Amino acid sequence: MSAKEEFKINGEELLGKVKELINEGNVRSITIKDKNNNVILNLPLTFGVVAAVIAPVLAAVGAAAALLTECTITVERKN
């Protein structure tokens, strides 16, 4: 089973929020959508993700954040 949550944030907060969610450890996937509800990034996360794998993901999130003024993060969590 999994649960979903949504957060509406601005682009400046995006990278910090994604880092926070990854550090929580119970996140299965993160989807980032623009203000028109178009999917910008879909980040599937698996148990035991290591820093070497996360670095390119965070770079992509940072690039997306530079382009977005408002966005929605949908988080799927493991129960």
Commentary on this structure:
The protein is α+β, with helices and mostly antiparallel strands and 79 residues long. The chain has a single domain (2-78), classed as Dna Ligase, domain 1, CATH 3.30.1490. It contains 2 helices and 4 strands. It has helices at residues 11-24, 51-67; strands at residues 2-10, 27-34, 39-44, 70-78. A 4-stranded antiparallel beta sheet has the order 1-4-2-3, with helices on one face. Helix 1 packs antiparallel against helix 2 (51-67). The longest helix is centred in the C-terminal third of the chain and has 17 residues, at 51-67. The termini are close together. The model has no long low-confidence stretch (mean pLDDT 83).
Please tally the helical runs, counting DSSP H or I stretches of 4 or more residues.
2
Helix content: 25-40%
Task: Give the number of DSSP strands.
Answer: 4
* Name of the CATH architecture: 2-Layer Sandwich
Mean pLDDT across all residues, rounded?
83
Low-confidence stretches: none
Radius of gyration: 12 Å
Structural class: alpha+beta
Residue fraction in strands: 35-45%
CATH class: Alpha Beta
User: What is the name of the CATH topology?
Assistant: Dna Ligase, domain 1
Distance between the termini: 6 Å
Write a compact overview of the structure shown.
With 79 residues, the protein is of the alpha+beta class. 39% of the residues lie in helices and 41% in strands. Strands 1-4-2-3 form a 4-stranded antiparallel β-sheet, with helices on one face.
